[in-house]
Structure formats: structure tokens, C-alpha cells
Specification:
The complex is a heterodimer of chains A (584) and B (273).
Chain A (H helix, E strand, L loop, with lengths): L4 E10 L4 E11 L2 E3 L4 H6 L1 E4 L4 E4 L1 E6 L4 H9 L8 E2 L8 E2 L6 H10 L2 E9 L4 H10 L4 E7 L4 H8 L3 H15 L3 E5 L3 H5 L19 H15 L5 E4 L9 H9 L10 E2 L15 E3 L19 H9 L4 E4 L6 E7 L2 H11 L4 E5 L3 E10 L4 H16 L6 E2 L13 H9 L1 H10 L3 H4 L12 H15 L17 E4 L11 H9 L3 E4 L2 E5 L2 E2 L7 E6 L3 H14 L20 E6 L4
Parallel strand pairs in A: 1-4, 1-5, 6-9, 9-10, 10-11, 11-12, 12-14, 14-15, 15-19, 24-25
Antiparallel strand pairs in A: 1-2, 2-3, 5-20, 7-8, 13-25, 16-18, 17-18, 20-21, 21-22, 22-23
Helix pairs in contact in A: 5-6, 6-8, 6-18, 9-10, 10-12, 13-14, 13-17
Chain B lengths: L5 E7 L7 E2 L5 H4 L4 H5 L2 E4 L2 E4 L4 E5 L8 E5 L6 E2 L9 E4 L15 E4 L15 E4 L22 E4 L15 E4 L15 E4 L15 E4 L11 E9 L6 E10 L9 E6 L7
Parallel strand pairs in B: 1-6, 2-7, 6-8, 8-9, 9-10, 10-11, 11-12, 12-13, 13-14, 14-17
Antiparallel strand pairs in B: 1-5, 2-3, 3-4, 15-16, 16-17
Classes of the chains: A alpha/beta (584), B mainly beta (273).
């Protein structure tokens, strides 16, 4: 039977079911986790002997840049990223190339080789939704979805400025359906619009040009709309002034805006069984916290202020973050924050590109190399890990590199190992600039994450945060049969032997997707169908009609016709609409 | 280099149509192998792989290390790419012309070409000696497309002329050209030394940040971002004696004001500068 497998005798780490290293069998039938298989089913099922190994739900990446126009711009402008990083075609797999910006095929294989099965693209400009879906459709193996960039959208800014929250909500709902997007992304609210005029925004209460709306109003409006509609995930926020010394204050003040907005996740889905309440309990999801935590006033007195934001988050319950770790080496900056990339260009002189997405947003792309010899880069390395180690509750943190901004996702094994091994951190401290130690708190941290914590940071919490626990992030009955088996015996785990940890995380012993073994020791062995998720958000017909009349009126300012704007379902591989706000 | 070297002779069997990807032709991969084993190494041609023996008759055997291995190619291999790629020691002698990417990323040892070499010779090399007795194509000692860091070390000697973008993005090492170069010699150079005994076309040293370029002949359309600093009499860059007066410039200040590049142009050949 396809998608049927028994994974026997492994040490299971399933935080959403509070399973912490118990020796258990995991059964999957026709792609879904089940309590048990009948004798007849067992006979036909594949069996993995996981004795002495670690078993976790398949990896979930809730913030990566893997599809769409800016990723492709990175590929095009970086031939040097490709020529030394290639894979050969096999009878099963495509050829591919690219290190920080791999081709779609290589991305899928590289993620699966590390045990990841679900990846969400963190920024879809609405006008580029078709392109983004085409790339997601072509990315093998991974279940995917993406967040729609709305923080500088002309319609949003106008409606919010005029206080028309209901109309703005109807617009967001329609945009999600129209572009088959999953959640709301807000990048440098109000500031990217100013960048169209060569300017930016540097405080929460500064109004932007023409629309005269402030970042505070946009963040407040979007987070209210998010809960009004009952979206699966919180507002994914990339705060203003990101990447500049001293930006942490603005980020922290931004996090205070959604405090008090009650999370209200309203999805009509069949939930997998979990011991923990799977409902989302956060109202804001701060993207790549490291880049939002810069202290100092210039690059000369640059320092980490992660402790400040972490202190705030430790005392509050409405915030969840992903780290945006910097594992050193090659990276490609790509963000909807065009002015931030321009400022990076001014610092480095590297080649860069910038785009204005008419009436909606913008973006910038630039190659970047993080050097151990650089003071600032070394502090950034320490800061990324601080984000995950100074916030006490692992359920408030998600491990990412904001791939490929801090570094490519293929460096996750390094990040996981730094989190688990103080010895590995010490080793890196001894190789990098002394600022890493002098200007961060990391040197004084002796916390070492357990496998259980790691399962929270890389599976359970990303899934819970984005509202995918109905299928992902756990091994509860009814969940998708996505399983990672690492060749680590938790009884003999030695964090000081970080070389061994690195080796095991780089190539999962088995990656199982929907009950099919897709990778063995990093080799792709099967390429089953993938799925794409989006939020099918309902609002009253009357409200939608009234909103659309206005949208159509203003649509004449676009360079394309209204009929050509939507992204039809045929652009998606196995589309799974998630019904949101259904009962209204 | 080792005193006694084991010699492997490759004789081209026939004319090659689609170019070969032959990065296996290095002393490093031939060392310790018999003629048969070497003949079985595979090369790509378009979408297919073939054993090396499909295209070459292989005689002799490799030495016990790369340093003790000499590869002699008897004939023209202008349609064979990547010969000597990444080699660390030993020697390759080509009794004909060589294809693109000759000695790309070579770390040590020596390559001697009796004929010409196609473009990208010595791309991103870090050490060793690459000596081309004939002419070379574009991008000698250059960075790969999209990259700004080319050759880092070693020495390239061209007895004839070279074409565009010689030493582009060069970080270190030395390139000597007996003849002429075309446009953008030393573009974005970050270090190292380029000596051209003949003339150069436009864009010499464009956007260079550091390093030295010496042009003993005429420079057509001199780059506008350089500043004249004085005249020097007689130079011996990298041990090569060049007589006469030289005008010394620093730059390129066209974009960066902190550039530290040095450009010498023969005074007699460039009276208008």
C-alpha cells in the first residue's frame, strides 16, 4: 500500500504530544499517521528499524526564500553562486545548481536530504504570485505555501488611512484567494512606499508620502485584520529600519502594537491528535529577529541588543520569533525591504538589484559574504544564536537563517549544532572576531538545547505558529506521515562531539514524506507528489462586492488588466485550500 | 619539482566535434594510475560521458604522486576544456593549442602550452606556473562570471598576445604578456601584478582597487579615473627589466575614492598622457 510504513523502536521526540525520547513505533497508513497497522497491513508495509536512532516529525521551515521573482533575480545575478555547486541528473532526479540560491529542483532535494518536508516562502508580492507558484510547483518533494506582502499595498494603505478596517479585511480575504496565499507578511510598513521616492521611514509615527499613513497604523491594522479574519498564522512582521545600528528599539516598540490583540484562529480543518492545544496563541510573528536587534549608533559601536528584545518577549505571551541566524560564509540578501538592500550596497559596494512592484511593494537583492574576520559579522553570528537561547520558552522561537539572507538553509545543521553544543560555540568563538564575545551575551550562555527543544524549534513550533498543526509538526494520529530519522542515539548523545552532530544533521538517516521514504542518508530515493496550501478566506458576499467595486475602479493604475491579475489554481501543485472564517 | 618524473603521453585519436570537459587531465588524477586506468577516466561530451581512451591513446603511467607526474599531450587539444583544472603539482606539456579553462584554479605545478590557449586560462588560479608560448584568449587569470575575485597567486606567462579582461578581479600573483592586450586589462584588480610589454586597448585598470599594472606600449583611450603622480626611470616589475621613462598613475578613482591601484604607462609611447 502506498504511503504505508512502520518506523520501529526509535527514540521519538514529538513535543506537541509531549513525547520526549520514548522508544515507540510510528505507523503511517496511506500517508497519514495511524495508531497501528493490522497484521495484513504490516506485511505489505515498508519497515524502518530505527532502534538506537532519533525519530521526529518531518522538518518544517516557516521562513525561507525559495520561490518567486526575487529568488530568481538572485539566481540570475549570481552565476558565481552556481558553478561550484552542482548535482548530476539521475534516473529519478533532475540536475541542478546553486549554493545560496539553488535551482528549484536542488532546493527540494537539499531540504529533503536534511529531513525537511514542509517549507513556506516568506514573501510573495501579489503581482509575482503566479511566478512564485510556478516555482513552488516545480520544487519537488516539499509541501509549500507562502505569505502575501501587504505592508505597502496601495489599497491597504488607503483603506487603513481612512479607517475602513472592514473593507481592508475584505480586500485581504480576496487577495489571499486571488493569489492562493497563506498568510499576511508585512515588510518595512510604509517605508517601502517611501523608497519609491528615494526615502525610507525611521520611526513608527512618521507618516509616509502621499498615503500619509504611519508604520504603527499599518501594523495595528494588519494585525487586527489578521484576527478579524481568523487567519491560520499571526502577522509575519519585518520591522522598520531593519539592519541599521540601533534598530532594536523600533522593533521592540513594533512588537508592543499587537499586544492585547486576541489571537483568533478560525480554520475549518480536521486536526491531527495532539496532547497540547494546537491553536495558535500568538498575535505577532517577528521575522528574522537577529536583523531587528542591532544596537549601537554606528558600525563602530555596533553591538547586540538581543537581550533587550528577548527580555521583552520573555515577559509577554503574544510574540513568536524566527531567528535569522548567520552561519558565516556566502549568503544572498533578498528582501521586500528595498532601502535596506540599498544601504547594504552603500556599505559593501557589491552588485545589487532593486525592484518596484507597482502599487504593491518592492524588493532588493545583493550577494553578501559573512566573514569570521569581520567584527560586525561575528556579532551577527552570536546574535542569531542569542535569539534562540536567551528567549527562555522554546515555544516562542523558531530556528531559521532567513535563507538565504543569513546563509543558505543547507547550513541548518551548523545552527542546530551550535544550539546543542557549547563546545561548538566555543570553537567558533576561537575562530571569529572577538567582538562576537565582547559585544553579545552569547559567551556567558551555557544553555544547550536538548533534542526535544530542537524538535520544538524546527518542527512543532513552526507548524503551530503558522497554523499547520492539523497536518504538520507532530506525529499524532491524523497528522501527515512526515517523519525524520536521525542517526543519533539520545542515550549516547555527547554535545561535545559536535563533529558527529554536524554529520548526522547534514544527512538524515531517513526522510519520510506522507509515508513514503524519500531520502536515505541524504540520497533521494523517491519523489512523491507535493501539496500547496493556501487560505481560502470567507467574507460576506455583499462586503466583497462593495470592496471589489472600489478595487476595480483603482485597478486602472495597474499595468495589467483586472482579469489577468488572479493566480488560477492550475498554477499550484495539488492545491489544498484551507477554509478560513467559514462560518461568517 | 621532482627530479625524475613518470611520463604519460596522450595522443589525440581524432578530430573532436562537441568540446570535451576534461578536468580529469591533471597530474593529481593521473598519479598512481596505469595507462589503462587513465584511459578509463571519464570525460563529458555534451550530455554523455566517455572514457578518456575514446579520444586519446594513452601511453606510460602516472608517478607515485602528482609532483612526479608529467603529462605530455602530443597534438592539438583546442576543443578540450579544463585541462589541468585545480592541479596541485607536476607538469602538463601541450604540443599544440589548448581549450578554454586551461589551468582553472590550479594550485601548483606547471603547465606549458606550445601553441595558443583559448579563453579563461588560469581562471582563479592560486599557485604554480602557466606558460603559453602562443597567444591567449579572453579572461586570462580572471574571476568567474559574476565574481570579483580572480587569480590569487602563481604566475602566468604569455609569449604572444592576449585578448580582453586579462587579470580581471585579480587578487594576487603575476601575469606577464610579451605582446599586446585588448580592452579592460586589470579590470577590478584587487592586487598582484600585470606586465604588458606591448600595447593595450581601452579601460586599462578600470575600477581597480589595488595591485599594479605596467604597460610598456601605447594605451589607447586611457581610463579617466586615474591621477598622474610622477615619472619614474626604468622598472623591474617581478624581475623583468623595462627600460625608459614611465608615467605613474594611481586609481581608479572613478567610483571609489579610496582606491590604491598603481598604473605605469611608458612615457615615450604615451606622450599625450
Amino acid at each position: 500500500m502506498a504511503g504505508t510504513i512502520a518506523i520501529k523502536n526509535g527514540y521519538v521526540f514529538d513535543p506537541l504530544n509531549e513525547i520526549n525520547g520514548e522508544i515507540m513505533d510510528i505507523f503511517v497508513k496511506s500517508g497519514k499517521v495511524v495508531k497501528e497497522l493490522s497484521a495484513a497491513e504490516i506485511k505489505e508495509a515498508k519497515v524502518i528499524d530505527a532502534s538506537g536512532m532519533t525519530v521526529m516529525p518531518g522538518g518544517v521551515d516557516s521562513h525561507s526564500h525559495v520561490a518567486g521573482a526575487k529568488v530568481n533575480a538572485g539566481r540570475i545575478m549570481r552565476p558565481e553562486d552556481h558553478y561550484k555547486s552542482t548535482i548530476q541528473k539521475t534516473s529519478l532526479t533532475h540536475s541542478g545548481s546553486g549554493y545560496t540560491v539553488p535551482s528549484v529542483y536542488k532546493q527540494g532535494y537539499d531540504y529533503a536530504a536534511m529531513g525537511y518536508t514542509t517549507v513556506f516562502e516568506a514573501a510573495i508580492p501579489p503581482l509575482e504570485a503566479r511566478h512564485t507558484h510556478e516555482e513552488m510547483r516545480a520544487t519537488p518533494l516539499l509541501d509549500m505555501g507562502g505569505y502575501l506582502v501587504l505592508g505597502n499595498n496601495f489599497f491597504m494603505m488607503r483603506y487603513l488611512r481612512e479607517g475602513e478596517i472592514e473593507r481592508a479585511a475584505a480586500y485581504v480575504a480576496w487577495m489571499m484567494k486571488t493569489h492562493k496565499a497563506y498568510g499576511i507578511k508585512c515588510v518595512n510598513p510604509a517605508g517601502v512606499e517611501n523608497w519609491g521616492w528615494g526615502k525610507n521611514i525611521h520611526s513608527l509615527d512618521e507618516a509616509n508620502i502621499h498615503f500619509e499613513i504611519t508604520p504603527r497604523e499599518i501594523i495595528k491594522g494588519l494585525s487586527e485584520i489578521n484576527e478579524l479574519l481568523g487567519m491560520p498564522m499571526p502577522l509575519h512582521l519585518h520591522a522598520n529600519n531593519l539592519g541599521h545600528p540601533g534598530c532594536y528599539k523600533l522593533a521592540m516598540d513594533s512588537l508592543k502594537i499587537p499586544d492585547g490583540i486576541k489571537p483568533r484562529q478560525n480554520m475549518d480543518v480536521e486536526w491531527a491528535e495532539t496532547k497540547m492545544d494546537p491553536a495558535r496563541d500568538r498575535s505577532v510573528y517577528l521575522a528574522h529577529m537577529m536583523f531587528n536587534s542591532f544596537g549601537g549608533t554606528t558600525w563602530a559601536d555596533f553591538e547586540s541588543e538581543v537581550k533587550e528584545i528577548a527580555g521583552y518577549i520573555n515577559n509577554k505571551d503574544h510574540v513568536v520569533i524566527d531567528s535569522g541566524c548567520v552561519p558565516f560564509g556566502e549568503a544572498t540578501s533578498m528582501t521586500g525591504d528595498g532601502p535596506a538592500v540599498h544601504d547594504l550596497y552603500m556599505v559593501t559596494g557589491n552588485k545589487w538589484s532593486n525592484t518596484d512592484v507597482e502599487m504593491e511593494c518592492g524588493s532588493g537583492v545583493m550577494p553578501f559574504t559573512y566573514l569570521k574576520s569581520s567584527g560586525v559579522h561575528s556579532v551577527q553570528w552570536a546574535m542569531g544564536l542569542e535569539c534562540l537561547l536567551l528567549i527562555n520558552d522554546p515555544w516562542k522561537t523558531i530556528m531559521t537563517t532567513d535563507s538565504p539572507n543569513g546563509g543558505p538553509f543547507t547550513k541548518y545543521p551548523e545552527v542546530m549544532t551550535w544550539l546543542m553544543s557549547e563546545a561548538f560555540r566555543k570553537q567558533t568563538f576561537s575562530e571569529c572576531h572577538k567582538w562576537a564575545n565582547d559585544r553579545s551575551e552569547l559567551g556567558g550562555v551555557n544553555r544547550e538545547l536538548s533534542l526535544y527543544d530542537l524538535a520544538i524549534l524546527t518542527r512543532a513550533n513552526p507548524a503551530q505558529t503558522i497554523g499547520m498543526v492539523h497536518r504538520k509538526g507532530s506525529l499524532g494520529v491524523g497528522a501527515d506521515g512526515d517523519v525524520t530519522v536521525y542517526n543519533i542515539n539520545p542515550q549516547q548523545l555527547d554535545p561535545n562531539n559536535y563533529e558527529a552532530l554536524l554529520r548526522t544533521f547534514r544527512k538524515a538517516e531517513y526522510t519520510v514524506k506522507g509515508g513514503e521514504i524519500v531520502a536515505v542518508k541524504g540520497e533521494i530515493v523517491s519523489v512523491p507528489e507535493k501539496r500547496t496550501y493556501y487560505s481560502n478566506v470567507h467574507v460576506e458576499d455583499e462586503r466583497e462586492k462593495e470592496m471589489l467595486a472600489d478595487v476595480k475602479e483603482w485597478f486602472r493604475y495597474y499595468t495589467l488588466g483586472f482579469a489577468n491579475y488572479p493566480t488560477p489554481e492550475k498554477y499550484l501543485a495539488n492545491p489544498i485550500p484551507i477554509e478560513v472564517n467559514g462560518e461568517r | 619539482m621532482a627530479e625524475v618524473m613518470a611520463e604519460i603521453i596522450l595522443v589525440p585519436k581524432r578530430k573532436i566535434d562537441i568540446k570535451l570537459e576534461a578536468e580529469v587531465i591533471t597530474p593529481d588524477s593521473f598519479a598512481g594510475k596505469s595507462a589503462d586506468e587513465i584511459g578509463n577516466l571519464s570525460v563529458w561530451q555534451g550530455p554523455e560521458t566517455y572514457p578518456l581512451s575514446e579520444f586519446f591513446e594513452v601511453k606510460g603511467s602516472g608517478g607515485s604522486s602528482a609532483a612526479e607526474t608529467l603529462i605530455r599531450i602530443k597534438g592539438d587539444v583546442f576543443r578540450v576544456k579544463r585541462i589541468g583544472e585545480g592541479m596541485s603539482a607536476g607538469k602538463i606539456e601541450i604540443e599544440g593549442s589548448a581549450g578554454i579553462h586551461l589551468g582553472t584554479g590550479m594550485k601548483g605545478g606547471e603547465i606549458l602550452v606550445f601553441g595558443d590557449s583559448d579563453s579563461w586560462a588560469g581562471m582563479e588560479m592560486t599557485g604554480g606556473l602557466l606558460h603559453i608560448k602562443g597567444n591567449a584568449g579572453d579572461h586570462v587569470g580572471c574571476a568567474y562570471r559574476g565574481k570579483w575575485h580572480g587569480m590569487k597567486g602563481g604566475r602566468i606567462v604569455i609569449d604572444g598576445s592576449a585578448r580582453h579582461q586579462l587579470g580581471g578581479g585579480m587578487d594576487g600573483g603575476e601575469i606577464f604578456v610579451e605582446g599586446n592586450v585588448e580592452g579592460f586589462c586589470g579590470i577590478r584588480q584587487n592586487g598582484g601584478l600585470i606586465v604588458v610589454k606591448g600595447k593595450a586597448l581601452r579601460g586599462v585598470g578600470a575600477e581597480m582597487a589595488a595591485g599594479t599594472i605596467v604597460i610598456w606600449g601605447k594605451i589607447e583611450r586611457f581610463s579617466p579615473g586615474f591621477e598622474f603622480t610622477g615619472v619614474e626611470e626604468g622598472l623591474t616589475p617581478g624581475g623583468v627589466e623595462l627600460t625608459g621613462k614611465f608615467k605613474k598613475f594611481t586609481g581608479d578613482y572613478a567610483i571609489s575614492k579610496r582606491a590604491k591601484g598603481v598604473l605605469y604607462a611608458a612615457a615615450d609611447a604615451n606622450p599625450e598622457l
